[in-house]
Amino acid sequence: MDANDSPSDDRSEVDAEEHDLDAPARDRTSDISGDVDIDDVLEDEDEDEDEDDNQGLFDDLLSGEPIFENKEVLRPSYTPHELPHRNEQINQMATILVSALRGDTPSNILIYGKTGTGKTASAKFVSKELESTSQKYDVPCEVEYINCEVTDTQYRVLAQLANKFIEKNRDVIDGRLDDLAALRSSVTEGDRTLADTRFDSLDAIDERIDTLEADREDMESVPMTGWPTDRVYSSFFEAVDYHERVVVIMLDEIDKLVEKSGDDTLYNLSRMNSELDNSRISIMGISNDLKFTDFLDPRVKSSLGEEEIVFPPYDANQLRDILQHRADVAFENGALTEDVIPLCAAFAAQEHGDARRALDLLRTAGELAERGQANTVEERHVRQAQDKIELDRVIEVVRTLPTQSKIVLFAIILLEKNGVHNINTGEVYNIYKRLCEEIDADVLTQRRVTDLISELDMLGIVNAVVVSKGRYGRTKEISLSVPVEETEAVLLSDSRLGDIENAQPFVQARFDN
């Protein structure tokens, strides 16, 4: 250390620094020195104001009183604990399926009814009760649900079922292996003997463990494509028959499966019980089409339709009860005005008593009120929801149209936007041909385009009326039945139509006398 440096000098410098740290903050705007830049200070304050603005974006939306308490209750996927006005049908199902709890094979059931009449909700409710009761009495009983609108081929149905049972079998094997390992350990340590077990030696336990591990190794999951159908069926058969159980296979939208793949799946499933050794299978089919069995093989029809249950449409009073039952759970107290539920029920009753439509309407009305930061759901919100749902339906129909139908519809939109009224088929066809040429699409004949216009009319997208022109013959006069701007936007969102927006041909407006 240098003689001129002293510990006291260092201490005084540290004390001075600590004194500066403890001193009160000075005015930042007046303390303009080489160390502080006034521009930096102002920028920091601007950033703080921006952060406040960003926080306010959601703070404003959250400031209103909440309307929903549990919105999921209003969705179709929700299975309620109670189903008003369906006790008769639920009791019928329970009476048929109770034999599964006795270890017997229940009769196959076909459930019919229009959309939104509570078929699927009732069937799922009964299935949950069946499985919970089977666990209570330690009876092996399982229910597997398949939506045939999504899983619509024999391969997919069998593969999905096979994989579900393979997964369950693996879980069963894992449980048995854990039990055997615990038994072996307790016997080895002398805590227990084999007298009260079915094994006479440790070697027998080891042999059983090896067998279970080999079974688990052999259980190969079925890929969604690539195997021969008979191999998939064999995997499903072996998986379901691995141990004793009664299985109820619930096929929702069963008519879609028959329409797409014929009745081979139902034929195979309905004949399985004669070949199974350990398990038993019962089929529960759910359909919106009362006549779909007319297309089935007589043998399949007789075995499948052993029991039939029909779900009639709800009337307005029943829909009101259903909505009130759900609304008590879904909404906060006082969130609905008195006229909301009756109006939702009345709108849905016009749609053949569709409870699903009523629930969608009530949920959408609540969402619109919430977005508008209203404290209550009112009649105007229900009417707005009705318009929105109808527009959403139209948009979905237009979005799923084939490309040629979209080009025809775009031709009609072009004519209407250019002031042509009472459009005839010839005018549509002329514009249609030019559009096809511009986007390099195949040009159909005029007769085929006329058929496409009829299909659009049937879907409610256009209104096509045949009118007589006297000696000039008859023609179709066409007008749009859907909003122009929204429909055009949906059409232009399809990448297959390419640059059709930039390829609009010249449309000459016709002056009608």
What does this protein look like?
This protein has 513 residues and is α/β, with parallel strands linked by helices. It contains 18 helices and eight strands. It has helices spanning 7-22, 38-62, 87-97, 119-136, 154-188, 202-218, 229-240, 254-261, 264-271, 298-304, 316-330, 340-350, 355-371, 379-399, 403-417, 425-439, 446-458, 484-492; strands at residues 109-113, 141-147, 245-252, 279-287, 307-311, 423-424, 462-468, 474-480. Strands 2-3-4-1-5 form a five-stranded parallel sheet, sandwiched between helices. The model is unreliable at 1-34 (pLDDT under 50).
Task: Give me the Rg, rounded.
Answer: 35 Å
Biggest sheet statistics? 5 strands, parallel
Order of helices and strands: HHHEHEHHHEHHEHEHHHHHEHHEEH
The class by helix and strand makeup works out as alpha/beta
Distance separating the two termini: 114 Å
Strand content: 5-15%
* Strand line-up of the largest beta sheet: 2-3-4-1-5
**What is the molecular shape?**
globular
Ranges where pLDDT stays below 50 over 5 or more residues in a row are 1-34
Total E-strand runs: 8
Count of individual helical segments: 18
Mean pLDDT over the full residue set:
83
- Helical content (DSSP H or I, runs of 4+): 40-55%
